């Protein structure tokens, strides 16, 4: 009798684990199909090339940057950043899971940090492109569209900027939105002061 119970329990456990595997496999297929649909196309962006192109366009005076160029670099920088993040996220998860072990942090951190820097650079270029799009659109009188580009630059940028006067993309975008609404007299957060 015990032998029969053992066989039945073992068979049940094997069936459950195979069922679980099948569900996981179906989930992977579904997720992969959604990602392929979302990121579409046939080519994967080359993040360093995308960044170099964005850098060249953003270095030009605002008047020489076309709306088409800015939209293109915002989209390509965002897409390239997403692809870099697919790798970075796995390093980040492993790093977080093993944060108590110094030897793991020392070995993983350099790789983790390189992907993070590249992803952040691409995001900053996207955000600068959004800010510049907003400025160009506001200048041409398209205030509604300008506002929402400013909003994207505002909401997607770092809350604080450690460089210079701390008035980075987020702060600049906020000033532009306030100007469009005629509420420039309301103060803005700049930086954590001690």
TrEMBL record:
It comes from the Bacteria. This is Tetratricopeptide repeat protein. Keywords: Signal. It comes from Thalassotalea piscium. The lineage of its organism: Bacteria, Pseudomonadati, Pseudomonadota, Gammaproteobacteria, Alteromonadales. Residues 1-22 form the signal peptide.
